[in-house]
Amino acid sequence: MRECEVVSFLMEEFAKRTGLVGDGIPRRYLWTDAFAVCNFLSLYEDSKDENYLKLALKLIDQVHHVLGKFREDDERKGWISGLRDKDGELHPTIGGLRIGKEIKERAEDEPFDEDLEWDRDGQYFHYLTKWMHALSRVTQVTKDHKYNFWAMELAKVAFKKFTYFDGRRTLMYWKMSTDLSRPLVSSMGHHDPLDGFITYMEINEIIKRNPRFYGNLDLDNEIDEFYFMTKDLNLVTADPLGLGGLISDAVFLSEMNFEKYENFLLKLIESSIVGLKLFIQNNYFSYPVEYRLAFRELGLSIGLKGVPIMKEILRDKSDLKLYFDILEDFSVIGKEIEEFWLDERNRENESWREHKDINEVMLATALMPEGFLKIKFEGV
Predict the structure, then answer these.
(1) Which pairs from 247-250 meet CB under 8 Å and 24+ separation?
(2) First-to-last CA distance in the chain?
(3) CB distance 123 to 97 below 8 Å
(4) Closest to 38 measured CA to CA, from 241, 252, 327, 308
(5) Distances in Å between the alpha carbon of 135 and those of 37, 123, 124, 232, 378?
(6) Residue 365 pLDDT > 80, yes or no?
(7) pLDDT digits (tens, 9 = 90+) for 148-182
(8) Number of H helices, E strands in the chain
């Protein structure tokens, strides 16, 4: 079976299982849905089948109407932003978007439980940036600027609510309450400022080409702040999902007007190589299958799929050739991850079934990553 057929099957099953199509109650989760939107774009651009584009747009609408509003078990009702229905329809992201976790967020008078917090709702910045990217990609494909406009509004409120100044520097909260009124986890995510810097640049590039559509608003200040926050951070990680995200961010930066940040791009590439070496040293693939999390591994596979894209863009930079040769030597890791999880025997365990939606969607992204990885500004 060809990769596009596998991806088509996985995404159509996901659509049925989560209530995107059929009569089921919509079951939305922001991270998974961001990758799903990009997967439908991949299928649409590959096949020119309008049904895949319709699924991407329907998924966006569902996410906004489910995760842009308070939970059914929340005493608060309506749009998270507090806007009335008509205005909320026009600005569905202006109050942020819920994660989509099974348990409602921790109440103000409830004690903090680190284990339980992973299953509680609220807002994650790194989930919001994935959704911003998905919205911007839809504008790049359809030329409809309302999606990138929604990404900009989400970017504005996320920066305002997740960042704070501690008297010496700007920092970020890792997790915020559903209404963005208070932090739920105060520590800063390792790559959150980097994700902000890269994703806001993508949105802003489209804004700069069409300033009047965006009311002459831009993300210049936010981009500068995120760059200042991240330029001196140690970005190295051996976590496969974080490492895949780091490589993906390097790919995205190379696809944009990166000359101003050429040294920073080199830092991302060098950090990725160090992280890959650490990942190999950890002997991760020796773990029993029930202790392996497919979606985290597949994040690494997705990032590695972007190396050829980056190499082609930077082909005239001879000083980077050695780096790309090293990165390409690691491509076998991504292939090994994909082949492992395509084997049905490795999906017959509780770990796979517990995370089936995110696992299958990210497997689809790894097999057909263009909708997620390829930024295209032509004609936008």
Answers:
(1) 247/272, 247/300, 247/303, 247/304, 247/306, 247/307, 247/327, 248/302, 248/303, 248/306, 248/372, 248/373, 249/191, 249/194, 249/195, 249/198, 250/306, 250/310
(2) 35
(3) yes
(4) 252
(5) 8, 17, 17, 29, 16
(6) yes
(7) 999 999 999 999 999 999 999 999 999 999 999 99
(8) 18, 5
Give per-residue pLDDT as tens, 295-319. Answer: 999 999 999 999 999 999 999 988 8
Instruction: Report d(CA 290, CA 307) in Å as an integer.
Output: 29
Tokens of 350: 């509780």
Phi and psi at 286, nearest 5°, equal: -85, -10
CA distance 13 to 27: 13
| pLDDT at position 233 over 80 | yes
Contact 79, 147 (CB under 8 A): no
Phi, psi torsion values for 317, nearest 5 degrees: -95, 90
What's the pLDDT score for residue 318? 86
Question: Residue 257: pLDDT above 80?
Answer: no
258: three-class secondary structure by DSSP: coil
